[in-house]
Amino acid sequence: MKTQNHTRFVSRLTRQTLALVLAGGRGSRLYELTDWRAKPAVPFGGKFRIIDFPLSNCINSGIRRIGVLTQYKAHSLIRHLVRGWSRFDSELDEFVEILPASQRAGGEWYLGTADAVYQNLDIMRTHQPEYVLILSGDHIYKMDYGDLIATHAKTRADMTIACLEVPLEEAADAFGVMTVNESGRIIEFNEKPANPAPMPGQPGLCLASMGNYLFNTEFLYEQLIKDADDSKSGHDFGKDIIPSIIEKYQVFAYPFRDMDTGERTYWRDVGTLDAFWEANMELVNVTPELNLYDSSWPILTHQVQLPPAKFVFDREDRRGVAIDSMVSGGCVISGSLVKNSLLFSNVRIHSFGEIHDSVIMPDVEIGRNVRINKAIIDRGCTIEPDMVIGEDPEQDKQRGFRVTEKGIVLVTPDMLNQPTHARR
Questions:
Q1: What confidence score (pLDDT) does residue 262 get?
Q2: Do 228 and 112 share a structural domain?
Q3: How far apart are CA 76 and CA 64, in angstroms?
Q4: CA angle, 70 as apex, 67 and 73 as ends, to 5°?
Q5: Is residue 256 domain-shared with residue 322, that is, in the same domain?
Q6: Which of 264, 282, 300 is at the close of a domain?
Q7: Is residue 305 part of a domain?
Q8: pLDDT digit string, tens, across residues 6-20
Q9: Which DSSP state fits 310?
Q10: Phi and psi torsions of 6, nearest 5°
Q11: pLDDT band for position 105 (50/70/90)?
Q12: Other Cβ atoms closer than 10 A to 261
């Protein structure tokens, strides 16, 4: 159990921390789902956006000075941040500040993760933080950053990297992988190696970077300026800065575990369509690993004022029913069956249809006699009556829908010749 003094210690450290959320990535492996939005702006979990998870982690951890670095097709992301994350008190030095790529240094757009932070050095200096926490804006997880910061201070580290214990076969060609000594100091770092090095005493596991980094502020400034002056650098933390500092400086790993059990905890990279569908489908389980109903660690977001979900008609051939599903506000299920699916807000499903194992994003209208199975239906789609999706892969491909290796079908308004980009 944490003592009051420990809690005050962590609270002081979090108040001295500036968080920077890297939210400029496209997420190209999500294909058409990110044609009109950045990956962190993709809806997730029935009512949230991916960006809401690292932002909520900051607020719940006591970090209330946050910058969000945007670049790729950022309009919907910026709109979401303005509507849902602009309620902080500037007089108390609390803020969520949007930092778009604006060629502040060198006349270039953000060239890499390190360059994105470097181009905002002048803004960082005005806030005078003791620590800078750099976060990836496109992962789903709940994490108390306070313990990370306290551990960093205790070890007197120059930099600390949050990491996961990952099976070797999952880490190959996917993560930055660390080798550590007995004290947790990183002695080797390899970006996406084909053959990851196992952890000492655990031959089936390796330490994989989460893309979350904590720096002593002055040390970060020094390394960013040095990297910016290196014409051969790719200006990336994982590929350039981390490998260049591990021998000379105190760089430690922070394994991300459940603080009560010590076990590996929930974290998802929803960077592919299959992973995105699977992570959403996990939420409709009876006891999902990610608990969105945990009042002690709420996930905050912008919420449109909507009426409750509604289920209408109760005849043998026409009954509005949802089983093992999550249904958001504003939805109307009129005489159709929804099973093992997740419906975002304002979804309208007309009669005599069946929706199975699917993710239906906001503002979708589904006509009569429609059958949908194992699909992702993007925001704003109108599915015409009698359409069948997810039962015949070849037919779905001929229509211009994307079918993944695992048979998940993606349908977007563009594929249906229904451009509704303004509502992203």
A1: 77
A2: yes
A3: 23
A4: 155
A5: no
A6: 282
A7: no
A8: 677 788 999 999 999
A9: E
A10: -65, -40
A11: low
A12: 8
If one counts every other C-beta atom within 10 angstroms of the C-beta of residue 202, the result is: 11
**Out of 52-66, 159-173, 205-219, 352-366, least confident range:** 159-173
> Is the domain of 262 the same as that of 323?
no
189 and 106 share one domain: yes
**DSSP assignment letter at 111:** -
**Is residue 317 a part of any domain in this protein?**
yes
Question: Do 160 and 152 contact (CB within 8 A), yes or no?
Answer: yes
Q: Which pLDDT score, from 0 to 100, does residue 170 have?
A: 85
79 with 144, same domain: the answer is yes
Whether the predicted pLDDT of 34 surpasses 70: yes
Whether the full predicted model's pTM is greater than 0.85, yes or no, is yes
Judgement on whether residues 187 and 332 belong to the same structural domain of the protein: no
Which residue has tokens 């229509």?
399
Q: What per-residue string of b and e applies to 67-85 under the rule 16 or more CB within 10 Å gives b?
A: bbbbbbbbebbbebbeebb
Q: Are residues 340 and 414 in the same domain?
A: yes
d(CA 360, CA 341): 8
For residue 183, what are its two tokens? 């004290």
Domains: count for the chain = 2
**Which tokens is 297 given?**
């660690």
Name the nearest CA neighbour of 186 among 204, 210, 209, 203.
209
* pLDDT tens figures, 198-215: 887 888 999 999 999 999
In this structure, are 249 and 137 located in the same domain? yes
Q: Supply the range of the domain harboring residue 50.
A: 4-282
Question: DSSP letter string over 380-397?
Answer: T-EEPTT-EESS-HHHHH
Contact 401, 414 (CB under 8 A): no
Query: Which residue bears the tokens 């009556």?
Result: 385
Q: Three-state secondary structure along 262-283?
A: CCECCEEECCCHHHHHHHHHHC
Does residue 297 form part of some domain?
no
- For residue 180, the surrounding DSSP H or E stretch is strand 176-180
DSSP string over 130-174: SEEEEEESSEEE---HHHHHHHHHHHT-SEEEEEEEEEHHHHTTT
Distance CA 252, CA 186 (A): 5
